[in-house]
Amino acid sequence: MNNAIRKIAIAAFLTFGCFSASAAEAFTASTNIPEAQYPKVDTDRCAHFRIHAPEARDVKVDICGTKYDMTRDADGWWSAVTQPLVVGFHYYFLVVDGVSVIDPASEAFYGCGRMSGGIEIPEDAETAAYYTFNKDIPHGQVRECRYYSDIENAQRRCFVYTPAEYETRTDRRYPVLYLQHGMGEDERGWHQQGRMADILDNQIAAGKCVPMIVVMDYGNCGYIFGARPGETRADFGATFTPIMINELIPFIEKNFRALTDRDNRAMAGLSWGGHETFQTTLYNLDKFSHIGSFSGALFFLADGIDKAYDGVFTDADNFNKRVHTFFLGMGTEEGFGSDRISKALTDAGINNTYFASQGTHHEWLTWRRCLNEFLPLIFKQ
Prior knowledge:
The chain has 2 domains: about 5-120, Immunoglobulin-like; about 130-375, Rossmann fold (3-Layer(aba) Sandwich). Helices cover about 25% and strands about 25% of the residues. The chain has 9 helices and 19 strands. The strands form 3 sheets. The chain has an 8-stranded mixed sheet with strand order 12-13-15-14-16-17-18-19, with helices on both faces. Strands 4, 5, 8, 9, 10 and 11 form a 6-stranded antiparallel sheet that branches. The chain has a 5-stranded antiparallel sheet with strand order 1-2-3-7-6, with no helix packed on it.
């Protein structure tokens, strides 16, 4: 192909999306409801959408920051094909006559501060193996648990993963990882979008991480910041820490065979959950010794590392003795600053591990990879 033809082809590709791969050659998305044939994903990673809306005048697909116009046939079926999408899980919406709605063919996921459609653009099987269900290994359980919060005067919900051996090794107690979602998501995120149970099952079966309990609770940040008039950044999600320290941890340690010392307690979170992790653990190092931030919303460098968290980083030797794992990770395409924070901590003598997820943005594939890197580091003391 000469350069002139190549330029025309690229321009057409960017304008109209995939040349692929007809819908007949695409495969049904794994995130569809039962028997729904659309959305589909083809071998070029383009997504094919279709919806029957005969009375609609204008329909679009809103995914990955781009809106695609859908075209209508004579029978009222609207369809569109996207440009190639990056691998991983993505929220998306249909915009029908100006109203953003969930695609009725998609499973619903809580994200973006609301229920959303979702689609998985698959990686190759070998790359995705760490978060893929493996029929040949034992599998843990994820339980939905409810408890009452005296602080909120309300019922709360958390999800708790127990490893496969938890049901048979009844004489054994387990370390606990408290794993937090981000802004606009909730306690379902890590189990559903994050595929954490598959990641844990696969790592435990391979001997890469120790069997552990994982607790996923609501971080009081399930809406988009700014939705509550007058709420400051410092206020956003801040009510979660006292609930976790005074109510959630006691609930878990009463109802599960959990080890209760700080060496066997970890906390990690993505995005605003990373912020909550630092806010909770670094002011309570008597309770935690393993800490992880995945694309964390961290701001403390602006005031100087010496002033952060009541000066916790000023005595590097003491910090390094107490904190066995201090992990920061993010995608190379998101620019959330974890790399700069890791360097500043290293320059201050603070031991930490930094992980860069190659080619990913502020998205669930980044956080799956971060969790996969974090798990083998914890509870190994």
